[in-house]
Amino acid sequence: MSLMPNQVFRLAGDALGLKAGLFRIVTDAPEINFVYCSQFAPSHLSENKRGGRTRLEKTKRSKRIVKAPLVGQLLSVPRQALLELHEAHELMPVSLELASTYYLPLTDRNTAEKFERRCNVMSEFLDPEKLKEELLVHGNLGRLVRNAMVRHKASRSYIYNLWSLLCRFGLTSTSLRPRWDRCGAKGKPRDLGEDGRTNKVGRKTLKQRINKQAYGSWGEPIQPGMNADWRAKIIAADKRIPSPKPSMRRRHREIISSRFVKAMRYDDAGKIVDVELKQGEYPSYEQVKRVLTVETSALEKILQTTSKGHFKRSLRGMTSCSWQGSPGPGLLYAIDSTIGDIYLRSAVNPEWIVGRPIVYIIVDVWSTAIVGFYVCLTGPSWDTAQVSLFNTTASPAMLSNLWGYEMRQSLFPSPTLPARLLCDRGEYLSKRAKATGMKLIRDMQYTPPFRPDLKGIVEVLHRIVKNTQYNFLPGAMDARRVEYDLRRSNPAAATMNVRQYTQYLHESFFVYNLTAIRSNRVDAHMAAAGVFPSPAGLWSWGHAMGIGYLRAAAQAELVTQLLPAREARVTPRGIRFRGNYYESPLVEAEHWSTFARSSGGWEIPVQYYPGSVSTIWTPNVSGDGLIDLQIADHANASPEIDYDDMADAFAFQQLKAADIEHKRVSAAVLGLKRMDAIRQQSIEQTRIALDRSRGRAPTITEARAMENEIAAQMLHCEYRGTRKDRAAVSENHLSMMEDIFAAKDREVANDL
């Protein structure tokens, strides 16, 4: 244990003539092997009960603040004895935190002056060396107290009160701060009923002053004083009035009407009406105005004149530029999503219109470069935001393979995962976002709801894309509000699907990174270095100067942490995932399908890219990294479509399921009727033949031989020629039939 001045320790039980409680070390004097301390919170103080009569419940003052007793008596304790108590776990050092009020700035002039005087009076007590010297020489504080009394013209009780504050809250100047908030100072409400108060506070009314002069007594005022119940009703009623607030007179009438009308009656027409109010049963206009104005800060008054969102977006003070707080490229990314003002068509059937896409954009705040984006048809969520991060960090070769388009690189070096990510609150508050932040991104931040101005760079880029690029695309909507009223959108004019629109945005962002004007960001040193004033130029220069942030991440880690995870099943036909089959040379070499055929299959975890069904990934249990599973040729989808298009196709098939089932049942019923007719006809013909038959019937062998002979004669009758020719025709016919049945057998085997 370190016996430092101002250290607080707790004594568990009575020892060394000290009672259990909290002590503060005033000074440590190893020269004389003693420690001077003061007990400021004995355990018996909390259990002490004041004497006197027992008060009735109605006369108790529950809100009264009792002044703390004076402390500060110096106790000299052997130093070695304290160390032995600490080793015996009877004495434990503790940390005592002060209230936040002690650390607020002093804005009131009177408070600041009083605090300064207290510090001047106790200046020698706050000097550790001076205090230690006084205790070593004299063993008490008497000389310091007399010096302070003479020098600063202060009373002895005043100094000992300040010494008590130092011993209680700490031997620093912070402990001497005045606590006006605990003494009912100016501006504090004094409601009726508080501390047993029954009379109205403040100046007497004119009628009371006249009564005092005429009759010698004040009398009771007509209008009672404010009480806690009235105050709560006024505040509750005013909160129900939306901002911007109406005039004060109207607010007063609405408050009285909604909270202070307690009686109603039936009028002559049988309607329920309010009973007329009586004077003194409701607060006056001045009382309501005081509650709503005098006790309201200036900022709150401004907020009452407008909505909170409008104030934060348009009326708050400008604090900084959007890129301030980001030291270099790659340190802070901002991500945001919007609904694209364009209608798209399905990649499976261009006749279908799939609606407007969700567009994610990730921007490097320092350089304003677009480092990644993603286009999808599902709603904004952290799952789609993770795919956007994957597009940012994945290699151009992988993205080109997934999208079937050459994704050219505009930023050098290639973007990696950022140190901080700024996203929306709805995407941040999810378990997957927390897991991603713990494993990949060191610091994740989010903006409050309805505050797009806090990540304005992304919002501005969305607006630029909508205003300049969408107007030239078929099926696009003009982003200007005036155009919404003048021209309606035409979804039938859409021609692009998700994949084509993604390729179009890639080229647009490629041009933006290389050509957007950023001359206002180029300072004198950057201009001398020849920095090209564009997002790509700023990005490259920042990394060249060593202020950028890059972090290598394995492809397997990006896939497992950023792409959605599901389960696939190993079957005898391959790995089945969402209705498609996938294969890999490694899977074939390890004979997964053989084991699945004998054991019935099993589930495996996979990651998939929502923008393409071509590839999925699964952990390599027999090796390192991940296994890339490519879609099989016999799958139900082709590599160029995504999961949304495939779901649309299957959903369309499900919509027609009733019609398909109806046709199937109708065909089956008609077939059953025809088969039954054939069966009945055969029964009737057999009955007639048996009735007509006479004599011995041929055996089965004889009858089969006659049937074959008749069939051969009928076949030969169709071809006129030699016997050799007829034999060749018969052989060719049998070979053709064998080929047809063999193909049919293969088709059935594939279905099984």
Explain this structure.
Helices cover 43% and strands 14% of the residues. By secondary structure, it is of the alpha+beta class. It has a 6-stranded antiparallel beta barrel. A 5-stranded antiparallel sheet has the order 4-3-2-1-5, sandwiched between helices. A hairpin with a 6-residue loop joins strand 18 and strand 19.
Structural class: alpha+beta
Q: Report helical residue fraction.
A: 40-55%
Integer-rounded radius of gyration: 45 Å
Number of strands: 20
Share of residues in strands: 5-15%
Which ranges are low-confidence, i.e. pLDDT below 50, for 5 or more consecutive residues?
44-62, 481-485
Distance linking N and C termini: 80 Å
Number of helices: 28
Give the CA-based shape.
Answer: elongated
Overall mean pLDDT stands at 79
Order of strands side by side in the largest beta sheet? 15-16-17-20-19-18
The main sheet comes to: 6 strands, antiparallel, barrel
